Structures are given as C-alpha cells and as structure tokens.
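Field reference: sequence -> structure
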Amino acid sequence: MSRTVSVFNKLEKAGTYAENAVLVIILISMILLAGTQILLRNFLDTSLFWGDEMLRMMVLWLTVAGGLAASRKDKHISIEVLDRFMPDSLQLITKIIIDLFTAAVCAFIAWHSARFVLGSYEFGDTVMGNTPAWMLQIILPVGFVLMAYRHLVLAIKRPFGPATGIDRP
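Structure field:
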C-alpha cells in the first residue's frame, strides 16, 4: 500500500511541476508577445497579424491552468461565513458536499466544453490563419476534467485529515 501511495505522491509532484511550468511559460510568452505587439505598433506601424488572437487564446489557457492550480490544494475562491458557527464535524461534512458538488459542476462544464470543441472540429473552425481552433480550445474539457478529478479526490481524502495534505476544518 505504501508503495502505491509513494507512486501517487511522485505523480502528484510531477503534475504540480508541470502545471507550474505551463503557467510560467504562458505568462512569460504573453508578456513577450504583448510587448512585441506594442513595440511593432508604436515604432514600425505594423504588428503580427496573429498576435492579438494568440493573446486571447493564451488568456484562456492561463485562466484554466490557474484554476487548475488553485484547485490543487483547495485554494480556490470560497466564502466561509457559516464555518465560524458550525462544529468541526459538520464543517467536514459540508466541505465534502461542496467538493462533490464542485466536481459535478466541473464534470458538467467539461462535458459541454468537449461538445463545443467537437463542434469546432467538425465545422473546421480556424484561428490565427489556418490553425485548427479545436487544438487551442482543447484546454477547456481537459482542464475541467482535471478539476473535477481533483475535487473528487479532495472529497475522498478530506476525512483522513492533514496527512493527505488537506487541512481538516
């Protein structure tokens, strides 16, 4: 059992490293591309024809990757008004219910975004000239499937407490 846990811990660390790398690469690329567009427009009266559309796609990727990173250790936006008044056992139950609900919502969004991407593929939509749009839109279903998985895992791990890396209430 401990060998299996060790393998999953290594996979989780590798996934965390990959997520962080993707976030940094996208952010640096956005800054460089936006800076290049500004310089080209202001000094050479031209721009990269695909630059603005690429920046929009990068914002999409950065947003989904950021949401995925936020769900990594249960650091997404939450409003915990009633937690102050509930006993610990009830807080644990409500957090599990919220995790399951969040997983269901993310799975629902993943399903419909997959349908959207499939429609884009079937219609042959393109962006930035001739790039198939589905190749850049694929982040939506993939990201939301991963978020759904994460919240399902959080719901399962939560009763076992801090040893799992998740703080109990």
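Note: The chain has a mean pLDDT of 87.
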